[in-house]
Design goal:
The complex is a heterodimer of chains A (about 525) and B (about 290).
Chain A (H helix, E strand, L loop, with lengths): L1 H25 L6 E6 L13 H11 L4 E3 L6 E3 L2 E6 L5 E6 L13 H8 L25 E8 L2 E6 L6 H4 L10 H7 L13 E7 L3 E6 L12 E6 L3 H9 L5 E2 L7 H5 L4 E5 L4 E7 L9 H10 L2 H8 L4 E2 L24 H11 L5 E8 L4 H15 L1 E8 L1 H9 L5 E6 L7 H4 L20 H13 L3 H18 L2 E7 L2 E5 L2 E2 L17 E2 L2
Parallel strand pairs in A: 1-10, 1-11, 15-16, 15-17
Antiparallel strand pairs in A: 2-3, 4-5, 5-7, 6-7, 8-9, 9-10, 11-19, 12-19, 13-17, 13-18, 14-18, 20-21
Helix pairs in contact in A: 8-10, 9-11, 14-15
Chain B lengths: L1 H35 L1 H4 L31 H37 L1 H16 L2 H12 L3 H27 L3 H8 L4 H37 L11 H8 L8 H28 L1 H7 L1
The chains are: A alpha+beta (about 525), B mainly alpha (about 290).
Chain lengths: ~525, ~290
């Protein structure tokens, strides 16, 4: 009996030790350097301009706005503002700023500093003002009646019209708050000497090559786990892949999808799957023949074998599409999946109905990078199978956007990443303003005003239920008009070294990597 | 018996002298033959996709494996020589014709025409040929025809310079002076006396330029300036396969290898031609 007790005690002790060991193995650890492989690195981090995704990753790591985005559940999380109130009419926002925070240069984060940073794009008197800082346009400043620091820790923003996305846009990269000291000291060169209040601070920056970021010991939520982040640019996907396999980088979004099956069997690399935040679509230029014809757009829609496109073109890293809005968006209508279907017979019937001579010569433009060439070939084959004669127009990014902007494309392949978890971030593509330079040139759509009214209603309606109804109507109208033909919702692979833990797969999928909570197990 | 022995001895001596050139010619001839008969020789349609069989390695069914869309790489390699070889041959022939004409005009007529033409050729030569070709395609637009024009245009000064230098020497040859003193017309002298005698070095140069043209056409197609994406073409296949180098190396490897072998065989063939057509080297050899 005693022996049995002793044995049980030993067994229990063993189990306890084992569980303790397991628990400690899962406990986050501080320290180490994480190297992130990016597809580019800009020459500056001035948030008034776009510097490629490498620049966004740096800005997201060093900066913080009044709020942070919650990509998993939607909505805003406290950032530099620990709380806020919005008036019932949706016009007055009162932000309560955390006390005791400081910028990387030691300057205290006060309401006055925040207001100055936020007014940078509209204050030509500011020494850091640069004409044409277009990225600030996302902040909605043209709708601000006033922005004031009412005391040291309270900022009050008054809008002219309600804006349902106003809170969330402060979480964008162009919404980060910059130190007033840096703005004074470096003036228009502040982008090369960024001082913000995010979890990391810039230690070294080699324009176009890499940025070395050090953990901010004074970050309000506590210092991040890793000591350092190196965000390094690589010339192409193959170079990123080689670096990942050699252990030179720990994390990337930019390795080829085709490598996933091999990497999944690797012991030191893990592939995580991102959330379906990015739309992939074919944009039809509705202002130009032949896709000013709705019947042809419908034929293209039914001609696409999306299962094969996703399987062979994207190595399975996408979900079947429904509409312009994604499954995580407010008002997402699942019903769209019944329209974005493969029905080649119907496509042929629509082409016959169009009365045009077949095969109809068309051109498909796309960027010569990532998965686009492979996807384009598959799309061309699908379109040729129903009666189109497709010429593929493979372009570098600059030429592609030049051609799109000039309205010279017929069909073009593109994607929409979302920088904030709000349906307006995608619906804005269809706003009347800017239609002339857009992929679809939708100023030529008969329903352009109706669509524009829904886009406007979507942003100016604060009530969530009402917004949901508006976006459902918007999606239905878009599926009726089909300026975009949907390919899928990308669920991008996130490539990490096995030592990288706690990777956030929501914002990261949209290009908003969050490295605050990441830690390295040695 | 004696005659047979002499023939075999001659062949042995010829082989010893031109062994690499003969191998090069045979290999290039084989590639040319296969390429010309591609539709009959290729086991599969080079555009036929088999999505379920993507990235298959070399096997009995697919000698060079399959690519990212399940297409047979062997069939694509066989078809893929057509655009490059047709562009290269056409470009070299055009450059030879135009360049030789310019060289003869400058070298025979001399004077201001010679000076102007040669300064123009100098300007063209000062650009690296691949950059000049890219510039021309960028101006004319993407397409195989424009790639041909670009390569041909970039090679014109090479032939013009060579032709001029030969003509300058030939006009002082006794048979040319004799024809001249007998009152032969310029056209007669050029067609009957200069052109035939300048052809050996021009042909040797053409063979060397063919290798360059194949390399340049492959490079231009690699960067997407030639054939339409998806069509079988060696350069395009390497470009499309480069991102697969770690995962399915057979996809870029085989077309890359064929480009290398083709260029090498043309170079060897050109070396042999030079040795054979150059009287000094021939005298030293056999």
């Amino acid at each position: 009996m005693n022996r049995l007790r002793t044995l049980s005690a030993i067994l229990l002790l063993g189990l306890l030790l084992l569980s303790l060991g397991a628990a400690s193995a899962q406990d986050p650890q501080y320290g180490g350097t994480l190297v992130f492989g990016a597809e580019s690195m800009g020459d500056s981090f001035d948030i008034g301009f776009w510097h490629g995704f490498g620049g966004v990753h740096v800005i997201d790591s060093i900066g913080e706005g009044l709020v942070r985005a919650d990509f998993e559940n939607g909505g805003a999380l406290p950032g530099l503002a620990e709380s806020w109130e919005i008036s019932d009419d949706g016009l007055v926002y009162t932000f309560h700023i955390r006390e005791g925070m400081s910028f990387h240069d030691g300057e205290p984060v006060t309401a006055a500093a925040i207001v100055r940073s936020m007014k940078r794009p509209v204050n030509p008197e500011d020494p850091s003002y640069i004409d044409g800082m277009y990225m600030y346009g996302n902040q909605g400043a043209s709708n601000w009646e006033s922005l004031e620091a009412v005391d040291e820790h309270t900022v009050v923003l008054t809008l002219m019209q309600p804006n349902a996305t106003q809170l969330l846009v402060f979480s964008r990269p162009d919404g980060i708050i910059i130190s007033p000291k840096a703005m004074d000291e470096y003036g228009t060169e502040v982008g090369l000497n960024m001082s913000a209040a995010g979890p990391f601070k810039i230690e070294r920056f080699v324009p176009g090559q890499e940025a070395v970021l050090a953990a901010n010991e004074d970050y309000w939520a506590g210092r991040p786990y890793v000591d350092r982040i190196v965000i390094r640019a690589f010339p192409d996907e193959a170079a990123i892949l080689a670096a990942l396999e050699a252990g030179e980088i720990d994390m990337t979004l930019y390795a080829p999808f085709t490598s996933v099956p091999r990497l999944q069997s690797s012991e030191h690399i893990r592939v995580e799957v991102g959330a379906p935040l990015v739309d992939l679509f074919v944009g039809a230029n509705v202002a130009k023949e032949p896709f000013d014809n709705l019947t042809l757009r419908q034929a293209v829609n039914y001609a696409l074998d999306r299962e094969t496109l996703i399987e062979a073109g994207l190595n399975g890293f996408a979900e079947m599409p429904a509409s312009l809005l994604g499954p995580l968006d407010l008002g997402f209508d699942e019903g769209g999946r019944e329209i974005s279907v493969y029905d080649p017979e119907r496509a042929k019937a629509l082409l016959a109905e169009s009365g045009l001579d077949m095969p109809l010569a068309i051109e498909v433009a796309y960027e010569n990078n990532r998965f686009w060439p492979q996807l384009a070939e598959l799309i061309a084959a699908d379109l040729e199978a129903v009666g189109f004669d497709v010429t593929l127009d493979r372009l570098d990014a600059g030429s592609f956007w030049g051609k799109v902007g000039d309205g010279e494309t017929q069909l073009s392949l593109n994607q929409r990443s979302t920088f904030v978890p709000d349906p307006h971030d995608k619906a804005i593509l269809m706003a009347r303003a800017g239609a002339e330079g857009s992929q679809t040139q939708h100023q030529a759509l008969e329903a352009v005003d109706e669509i524009d009214a829904l886009v406007t209603a979507g942003i100016s309606t604060v009530d969530a239920m009402k917004r949901e109804a508006i976006y459902k109507e918007f999606q239905a109208l878009m599926l009726e008009q089909l300026p975009y033909i949907y390919i899928g919702y990308l669920t991008p692979p996130i490539f990490v070294n096995a030592r990288v833990q706690n990777v956030e797969t929501f914002g990261t999928a949209g290009g908003r990597i969050n490295l605050r909570e990441v830690w390295l197990s040695e | 018996m004696q005659a047979e022995k002499t023939t075999s001895a001659r062949f042995a001596a010829f082989w010893r002298r031109y062994d690499i050139a003969l191998v090069g010619s045979a290999v290039f001839g084989f590639i040319l033959f296969i390429t010309l008969l591609a539709p009959a020789v290729a086991p599969y349609d080079p555009m036929a996709r088999d999505i379920k069989n993507r990235f298959a390695g070399p096997s009995v069914e697919n000698a060079f494996g399959t690519d990212q869309l399940g297409r047979d790489v062997f069939s694509r390699v066989i078809h893929g020589g057509r655009p490059i070889l047709s562009a290269s041959f056409s470009a070299v022939l055009c450059a030879l014709a135009i360049g030789t004409a310019i060289g003869i005009a400058g070298g025979y007529l001399r004077g201001w025409l010679d000076t102007s033409l040669m300064r123009l050729m100098d300007v063209m030569l000062s650009f690296p040929s691949i950059l000049l070709a890219i510039l021309i395609v960028a101006t004319l637009g993407v397409g195989l025809l424009n790639v041909t024009v670009a390569i041909g245009f970039a090679m014109v000064p090479v032939f013009a310079r060579l032709a001029r230098s030969i003509v300058i020497t030939l006009v002082f040859e006794e048979y040319v002076l004799a024809a001249c003193s007998l009152g032969a017309s310029d056209r007669h002298i050029v067609w009957k006396h200069i052109l035939p005698n300048m052809m050996p070095p021009i042909i040797v140069q053409a063979s060397a330029m063919l290798a360059v043209a194949i390399g340049t056409a492959s490079a231009l197609n690699f960067i997407g300036l030639g054939v339409e994406p998806g069509r079988p073409d060696w350069g395009m296949m390497v470009a499309e396969g480069q991102r697969l180098i770690f995962d399915a190396p057979h996809v870029p490897l085989f077309p890359g290898l064929v480009i290398t072998i083709t260029v090498l065989s043309v170079n060897y063939m050109g070396d042999g031609l030079r040795d054979h057509l150059d009287p000094k080297l021939r005298r030293q050899g056999v």
